[in-house]
Backbone:
């Protein structure tokens, strides 16, 4: 072996030139914009900037995505000897990956060698998908505009802090986002669920018709869901083929993912350089305080590298962007970059989550049919008690609906095994009788920022790249706990109105005590907030750092509220606005 | 030698990947073909982990948990014992649950009926299961059996209903994709009438 190596070296002397890191930096190109992270925020910034003729480099910690190879669309469990339990039966010991074997998530709640910690008394879970497209490859595609009062919470009820922008500022960007990615829905004229640019929604499934009727009786609105899934072809992407498997990833790209809808097309522009396997470690600044380069670790070689930039956009996910700022310390910014206010890491929120399921006897014996539809609900319940001051908690929640004849999978009939017990033909008959008759409701509600919930850097722990890791501190207040109880009462009322019998909480492990563990709704955000006052905020109204003019944030870190509307659509709209502003500032040479 | 070159075939595959219905069909075709090949090449299954006596007991147990009936075949035809053997052969924790549980079952059967589970009379086998298939019988004597049976029932049910036989049994007709989403009016009428929400 030794002989072979020496032979190779002798034969290829050209590879034996050594270059010092400084030489690499001096000779390397300077990109107009370096974007860190390729999810909803990063994908949008890349799309908008390359369309406007700007040269962009995109850093992604994970690998390139190859949908045809990576997505498990249309596969059956029996195509695998382990039936999706994993070669070692990981499923049966709660050790399966992320959202199960079929999910497109190339990520998990825990990543090998990349830990995070929690403060004393705190519980918090953090889902990361390290791959081009990030969590948009597998997310729920629920696309809800924030309401006018979601941008002005303090003016609305005295709690929280108003955004430096209003609904009217962002509305044109919601239009652009919806027109481009494609969102279903209907015009309803509700203040709690502002209308947008919609594609026609699909027909409701049978259980959704029942829930709508039950809600009508209870004076609760139930309307077609707003999902980033095409029902009509758009920009060369075909309409949905209704296999119900959006979470596995859609090879024809009929649903939105930043990878397939924004990044792959941008690669054809000739203005996008993608660096995969690049784990950003620190932002490098010059004496004037401007960012000049991003220092990152090549995850495959563990080599430290740098990429030079005129401007930088952080879109690494709210928590990773926060971590990067806090880890970028210098003599002029000892508390981290863009953090002279000291707010970076504060105001961490997730959505309030609670789910319940029920058995619906009305569905028993119904003619079986293909109810796959979208990957997700066709109908949903927007918040409706905006005027009610007596309910005991501020703001509100929306309700998501689950049910139908799902593809049988591991665990589909645990409920029957547990409740019916026994064995033999009786068990088989019982499974046949109850299949498809269970319906679930899940609430997703607003958390008010509080002093006990924040992210900082663990002083004692680094990851496998030597980068100090996040430490999460998290506590629900009585507001959220009372809201989750209200969800339970509402769900029970809806189920009973349709003649159902409540089976209980649908996810007791993740929602102990009737409320989700922080982070598990995967809407964690708010830790690099915007504002007009540099003393109380890190970013201005264009998500540009007050302290560092060539630094922008384009994920959900700038948000001041985390309302009863999933954040992704607002990430896309806000990132779109930020990218247009950035392009204009570059053109004027202001940054 | 076919006149189609490798390059042509690759181009056809790439074209097929651009339109939704074709990959569906071709994917299903590939899976069917793979299943056929497997069927032809596999003879009598040789367990990776279980001894012949354990294997006989596991097969009998699977057949009792999900037997064939007038609607469909049972767990044996659906490959449940093979599924359990595969996972146990890769997971010591799971293997211990099954080897331990099957041994417990054999000792109980010997004490009660003088023979191991696999070789016992059918009525003795079912009278044992009638005890361990219900939590209400939980006692120091039966506890290990009840816990083991919960594992066996879970995994036999999983294996059966993730097989083509089980999927057909419950009547799941999806995973095929369709140009529009349609809900039969008869199904809506049926559920509305029964719900009292009309």
Residues:
């Amino acid at each position: 072996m030794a002989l072979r190596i020496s032979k190779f070296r002798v034969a290829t002397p050209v590879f034996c030139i050594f270059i010092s890191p400084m030489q690499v930096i001096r000779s390397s190109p300077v990109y107009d914009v370096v974007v860190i992270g390729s999810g909803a925020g990063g994908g949008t910034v890349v799309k908008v900037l390359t369309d406007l003729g700007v040269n962009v480099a995109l850093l992604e910690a994970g690998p390139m995505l190859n949908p045809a190879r990576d997505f498990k669309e249309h596969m059956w469990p029996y195509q695998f000897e382990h039936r999706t339990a994993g070669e070692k039966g990981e499923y049966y010991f709660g050790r399966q990956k992320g959202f199960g074997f079929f999910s497109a998530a190339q990520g998990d709640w825990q990543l090998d060698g990349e830990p995070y910690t929690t403060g004393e008394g705190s519980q918090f879970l953090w889902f990361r998908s390290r791959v081009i497209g990030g969590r948009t490859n597998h997310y729920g595609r629920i696309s809800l505009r924030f309401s006018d009062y979601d941008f002005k919470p303090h003016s609305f009820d005295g709690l929280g802090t108003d955004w430096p922008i209003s609904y009217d500022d962002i509305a044109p960007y919601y239009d652009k986002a919806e027109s481009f990615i494609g969102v279903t829905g209907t015009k309803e004229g509700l203040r709690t669920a502002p209308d947008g640019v919609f594609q026609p929604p699909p027909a409701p499934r049978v259980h959704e018709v029942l829930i709508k009727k039950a809600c009508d009786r209870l004076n609760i609105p139930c309307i077609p869901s707003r999902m980033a899934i095409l029902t009509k072809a758009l920009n060369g992407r075909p309409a949905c083929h209704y296999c119900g498997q959006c979470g596995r990833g859609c090879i024809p790209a009929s649903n939105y993912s930043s990878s397939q809808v924004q990044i792959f097309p941008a690669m054809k522009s000739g203005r996008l350089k993608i660096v995969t396997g690049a784990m950003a470690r620190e932002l490098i600044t010059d004496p004037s305080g401007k960012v000049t380069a991003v220092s990152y670790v090549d995850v495959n070689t563990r080599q430290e590298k740098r990429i030079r930039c005129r401007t930088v956009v952080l879109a690494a996910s709210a928590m990773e962007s926060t971590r990067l700022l806090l880890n970028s310390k210098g003599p002029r910014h000892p508390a981290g970059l863009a953090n002279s206010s000291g707010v970076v890491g504060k105001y961490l929120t997730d959505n309030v989550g609670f789910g319940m399921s029920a058995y619906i006897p009305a569905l028993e014996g119904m003619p079986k049919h293909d109810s796959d539809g979208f990957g997700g609900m066709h109908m949903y319940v927007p918040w409706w008690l905006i005027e009610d001051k007596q309910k005991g908690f501020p703001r509100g929640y929306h309700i998501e609906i689950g049910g139908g004849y799902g593809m049988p999978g591991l665990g589909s009939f645990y409920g029957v095994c547990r409740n019916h017990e026994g064995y033999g033909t009786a068990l088989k008959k019982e499974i046949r009788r109850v299949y498809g008759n269970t319906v679930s409701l899940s609430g997703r509600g607003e958390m008010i920022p509080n002093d006990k919930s924040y992210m900082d850097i663990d002083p004692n722990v680094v990851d496998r790249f030597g980068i100090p890791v996040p430490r999460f501190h998290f506590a629900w207040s009585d507001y959220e706990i009372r809201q989750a109880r209200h969800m339970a009462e509402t769900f029970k009322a809806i189920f009973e109105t349709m003649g159902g019998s409540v089976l209980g909480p649908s996810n007791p492990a993740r929602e102990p005590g009737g409320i989700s563990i922080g982070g598990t709704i995967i809407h964690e955000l708010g830790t690099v907030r915007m504002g007009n006052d540099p003393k109380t905020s890190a970013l201005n109204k264009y998500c540009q750092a007050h302290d560092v003019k060539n630094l922008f944030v384009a994920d959900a870190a700038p948000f001041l509220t985390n309302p009863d509307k999933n954040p992704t659509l607002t990430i896309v709209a806000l990132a779109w606005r930020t990218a247009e502003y950035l392009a204009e500032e570059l053109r004027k040479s202001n940054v | 030698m076919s006149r189609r070159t490798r390059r042509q075939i690759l181009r056809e595959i790439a074209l097929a990947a651009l339109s939704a219905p074709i990959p569906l069909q071709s994917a299903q075709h590939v899976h069917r073909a793979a299943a056929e090949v497997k069927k032809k090449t596999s003879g009598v299954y040789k367990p990776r982990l279980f001894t012949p006596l354990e294997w006989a007991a596991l097969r009998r147990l699977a057949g009792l948990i999900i037997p064939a009936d007038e609607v469909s075949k049972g767990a044996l035809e659906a490959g449940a014992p093979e599924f359990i053997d595969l996972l146990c052969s890769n997971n010591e924790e799971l293997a211990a649950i099954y080897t331990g549980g099957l041994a417990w079952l054999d000792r109980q059967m010997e004490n009660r009926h003088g023979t191991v589970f696999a070789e016992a009379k059918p009525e003795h086998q079912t009278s044992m299961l009638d005890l361990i298939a219900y939590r209400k019988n939980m006692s120091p004597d039966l506890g290990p059996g009840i816990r083991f049976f919960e594992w066996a029932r879970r995994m036999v049910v999983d294996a059966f209903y993730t097989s083509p036989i089980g999927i057909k049994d419950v009547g799941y007709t999806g995973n095929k994709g369709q140009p529009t989403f349609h809900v039969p009016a008869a199904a809506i009428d049926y559920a509305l009438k029964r719900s009292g929400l009309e």
About this structure: Chain B has one domain: 6-195. The longest helix of chain B spans residues 92-113.
